C-alpha cells in the first residue's frame, strides 16, 4: 500500500498554491461544517489522506459527528474544577477559540523570549496543517447539578450511563462533566490538539479518563468499510452521512424532539469502552463468528447473500434459519416494523492498550453512537442486544452519556452560548 500521506505533505508544503482547495459540497447541504481539500486529496476507506484538508468547525452542528471517518481519534472526559457560571462561560469561550485556531492551516512565528514557556508544544514544527481535525464538545449529566444553576436546562433524556447486564464498569473509566472527541488522520495531529486544549484550560478542568482510537489506514480487500479487531466490517448498516433528511431523523435534535430550545442542532453521544477477549475469539470456529454477527466475515454480506450492501431480507427469513434471531445484526436492527429500528448513527474506533493482569491483550472497541433521542437510540438498541451470544467475547468497562452542544453560528458564537446566556 502506497503511503500517500508523506508524499502529499512534502509535495504540498513545497507547492503552497496547492493549498487552494476545492470545496466538497457535502457539508453545505447538510448544514454542517464544510470540508476543503487540496487537489491531491484521495478518499480511501472514507478517510482522506491529506494533511492540508480542513473541516470547518462552524455551522448549525458541530463537526466530528457525521463528518467522514478519520483514521485516528482521542476521547477524553474532563471534570470542571471551577464553580461559577461565568468561569464555565469563559472555559467554553476559550475552547471555541482554540478549535477555531487548531482547525486552520497556519505558519507560526518563532517566539524569542526564552524566559517564557513556548506558546505551543512545537511537536508539529512551524507549519501547521489541520489534517481534517475536528474537536467535538459534549456535556455530561453532572454539568447540570447545582454548581452552575443549569438544572432546568438539562436535555430531557440525559442520564448518567446505567450499568447494563454484561457491563463491568470501572469508575475511573466512566462519566465526566465534559467529553471531547478529537478526530484527524494522524496520531500526532490529535495529540497536538489535545495538548493545546489542555494547556489553555487547565485552570478550569481536569482530565479524568482518556483513550486513543484508530481505524485501519488502508482499504481492506478493496472494501471501504472499516474492519474492527474481530475482523468484521463495522459500519455497513450505518445510514449515509450524506442523507441530510435521515441525519435529522436519526442524529440531530430538531423542534420535533421537544427538547429545551438551546438543544436544537445538538445530539446525544453514547460512548462505550468495550474490551474484546481476542484470544478466545481467535479460537472460535468461523461459522460461530459469522452467526454471532449475522454476516460473512470476509465479504461482510448478510448470511445467505453475496455482497456487503445486499438487503438482508429478514422478512424472507421469518424463522431465523439464515440470520439467527440472536445474531448481533438482527437484535440491533430487527427491521420490524420499519428499516430504521435502531435510531442511531455509529462512529466507533478500535483501541489498543497494554496487557491485562491475566496476560491477555487489552484491546477492543470505542463504541460511539450519536442520536437525537438517547432512549430510542442507544438505550433501546442496547436493551435488545442484552444477552446476545457476542457477549461471550466482549466486556464493556467504561464510557458515558453526553450531549453534543449545538455548533457555532452567528448568534451562538461560542459553544454553549445559548445554554449559558439566558
Ligand atoms: C463489541 C461491540 C460491538 C461490535 C464488535 C459490533 C460490531 C458490529 C458489526 C460487525 C456489525 C455489522 C456490520 C454493520 O452493520 O456495521 C454491527 C451492526 C450494528 N451494530 Fe454493532 N457492534 C458492537 C456493539 C454495538 C452496540 C453497543 C450497539 C448499540 C447499542 C450496536 C449497534 C449496531 C447496529 C445498530 C448495527 C446495524 C445493524 C444492521 O443495520 O443490520 N453495536 N455491529
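-> sequence recovered:
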Amino acid at each position: 500500500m502506497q503511503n500517500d500521506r508523506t508524499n502529499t505533505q512534502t509535495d504540498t508544503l513545497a507547492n503552497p498554491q496547492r493549498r487552494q482547495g476545492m470545496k466538497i459540497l457535502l457539508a453545505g447541504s447538510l448544514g454542517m461544517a464544510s470540508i476543503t481539500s487540496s487537489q491531491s486529496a484521495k478518499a480511501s476507506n472514507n478517510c482522506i489522506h491529506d494533511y492540508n484538508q480542513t473541516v470547518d468547525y462552524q455551522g448549525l452542528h458541530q463537526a466530528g459527528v457525521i463528518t467522514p471517518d478519520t483514521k485516528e481519534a482521542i476521547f477524553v472526559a474532563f471534570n470542571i474544577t471551577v464553580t461559577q457560571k461565568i468561569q464555565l462561560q469563559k472555559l467554553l469561550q476559550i475552547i471555541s477559540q482554540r478549535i477555531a485556531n487548531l482547525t486552520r492551516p497556519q505558519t507560526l512565528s518563532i517566539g524569542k523570549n526564552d524566559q517564557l514557556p513556548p506558546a505551543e508544544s512545537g511537536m508539529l514544527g512551524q507549519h501547521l496543517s489541520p489534517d481534517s481535525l475536528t474537536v467535538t464538545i459534549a456535556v455530561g449529566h453532572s454539568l447540570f447539578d447545582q454548581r452552575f444553576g443549569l438544572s432546568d436546562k438539562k436535555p430531557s433524556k440525559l442520564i448518567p450511563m446505567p450499568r447494563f447486564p454484561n457491563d463491568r464498569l470501572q469508575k475511573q473509566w466512566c462519566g465526566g462533566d465534559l467529553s471531547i472527541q478529537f478526530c484527524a488522520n494522524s496520531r500526532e495531529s490529535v495529540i497536538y490538539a489535545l495538548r493545546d486544549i489542555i494547556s489553555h484550560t487547565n485552570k478550569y478542568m481536569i482530565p479524568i479518563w482518556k483513550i486513543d482510537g484508530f481505524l485501519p489506514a488502508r482499504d481492506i480487500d478493496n472494501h471501504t468499510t472499516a474492519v474492527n479487531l474481530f475482523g468484521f466490517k463495522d459500519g455497513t448498516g450505518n445510514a449515509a452521512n450524506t442523507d441530510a433528511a435521515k441525519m435529522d431523523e436519526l442524529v440531530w435534535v430538531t423542534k420535533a424532539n421537544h427538547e429545551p430550545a438551546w438543544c436544537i442542532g445538538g445530539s446525544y453521544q453514547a460512548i462505550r469502552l468495550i474490551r474484546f477477549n481476542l484470544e478466545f475469539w481467535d479460537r472460535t470456529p468461523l461459522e460461530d463468528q459469522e452467526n454471532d454477527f449475522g454476516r460473512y466475515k470476509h465479504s461482510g454480506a448478510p448470511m445467505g447473500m453475496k455482497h456487503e450492501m445486499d438487503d438482508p431480507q429478514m422478512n424472507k427469513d421469518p424463522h431465523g434459519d439464515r440470520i439467527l434471531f440472536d445474531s448481533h445484526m438482527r437484535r440491533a436492527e430487527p427491521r420490524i416494523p420499519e428499516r430504521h429500528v435502531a435510531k442511531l448513527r455509529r462512529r466507533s474506533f478500535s483501541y489498543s492498550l497494554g496487557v491485562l493482569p491475566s496476560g491477555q491483550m487489552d484491546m477492543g472497541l470505542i463504541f460511539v453512537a450519536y442520536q437525537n433521542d438517547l432512549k430510542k437510540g442507544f438505550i433501546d438498541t442496547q436493551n435488545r442486544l442484552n444477552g446476545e451470544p457476542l457477549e461471550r467475547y466482549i466486556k464493556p468497562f467504561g464510557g458515558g452519556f453526553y450531549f453534543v452542544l449545538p455548533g457555532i453560528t452567528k448568534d451562538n458564537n461560542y459553544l454553549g452560548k445559548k445554554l449559558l446566556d439566558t
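The chain has one domain: 4-8+18-105+126-420.
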